Amino acid sequence: MRLGLVELLLVLAIGTLVFGPAVYGWVRGWLRRAKQTNREIARRRAQAQAQMRAERDAVLHRFQIVGLVLAVLMALSLVYALLLRPIDPRPQSYTAPAVATETAVRNLSGLTELSLEGYTDPSCVRVREGWVYLSVQSEAGGSAILRMREDGSSLTKVLESEGEITGFDFDPAGEIWFSVLTGKGGMICRGSYDGWGASTEKIVTQIDGEPLPCPAAVAVGADGRVYFANLSASVAGDGLENALRTELLAHTATGQVYVYDPAARTVQLVLEGVAGAAGLAFVPEENALYVSDFGQRCIWKVDADARELTAGGRDCALFAGALPGYPGALGVDDEGSLWVGYRFNRSPWLEGQAAETFQRGVALRLPYRMQTALFGVEAGSPAAQEYSSAGQLLAEVPSENGGGAAALCPVGSRLYLGGSDDAPVLGWLLY
């Protein structure tokens, strides 16, 4: 039987009337359940997002607390390091010396550099019988005394030491007296060299039961007595260069000059109260001793036979003062003139704080690399100067490369200079 259009529409109408409400109810229920499910999913998603936000905020809060604690700890550490950390020596108040005003008659230039082949930082230079002797630091570690011809040829190692050789000189018999600085103190040694090898022995290792804190220079008199300078009473554990900066900042004025008599095997005090006894020079014609006072920027002159003097006191004459830099190495030429080497220029900031110990205490607590920014030698500033025997300024050697003079030795018409800081080389020029 075939259904017509009317019959088909009638069947659909009857089916709609019979099944429509049920289908509608089912669809409506399904949609309602779907909406509920979506709402539940959205609610759970919102809860999850809220929980994630809460957890994230909690983590961020913890990080903020940790960061704040670290910042406080860093601030406290910085306060301790710069303000509260114990320092030795403690800065002392002093009166800053006057500013240099004297002008040299001659300016010298034309430094000829000599190769040191694996060695650097010459700290002392002497010339004997056509040989140039110098104490240096080895790039492999330790220090040594070398010798070379005046033109730089025939470089030979004379002797070596595990510590830092800070100064040396020859006695009338040709033996080498040298000062050595170690991390626990220093000593005065004697060395013999025959052209083939060297032998050394320790001579002075302590005074009054205490180790030598910081021997910095040596000069031998015509009678063989050995004069040596002790930079200060503080043990220099980090080398002479650091000890010099420490004394400039602290200005303890505890430097001393002693004399050792090889015949009597005795040590006697010559001079005390020096704010950094950094250099010595002996004048045989006058039996006199020049002493460089690092912190006071001056040179003292005393009788070599005098004992237990005080810097600036009775029988201690001011030879040259208000120097343009901090004097270290000293040397006397054939005419009796005194040559002075400057490791650093005068520091206006430092001497402006002469009466204030707080700021210098902070500077003493600074790391070594930051301390070095307080001192230096500008190009064109004096690296060395010549003074007549009467104390008159005669000549000046400007710094050509921003380095100071850690060592010098005038001989004949030549001046040998050992550079420091940015120019750790050996060179010579005519004067």
From TrEMBL:
This is SMP-30/Gluconolactonase/LRE-like region domain-containing protein. The keyword Chloroplast does not apply. Residues 217-341 form the SMP-30/Gluconolactonase/LRE-like region domain. The chain crosses the membrane at residues 6-27, 63-83. Keywords: Coiled coil, Hydrolase, Membrane, Transmembrane, Transmembrane helix. GO terms for molecular function: hydrolase activity. Belongs to the SMP-30/CGR1 family. It holds the Pfam family SGL. Gene3D superfamilies: TolB, C-terminal domain. Residues 31-58 form a coiled coil. The keyword Coiled coil applies. SUPFAM superfamilies: Calcium-dependent phosphotriesterase (SSF63829).
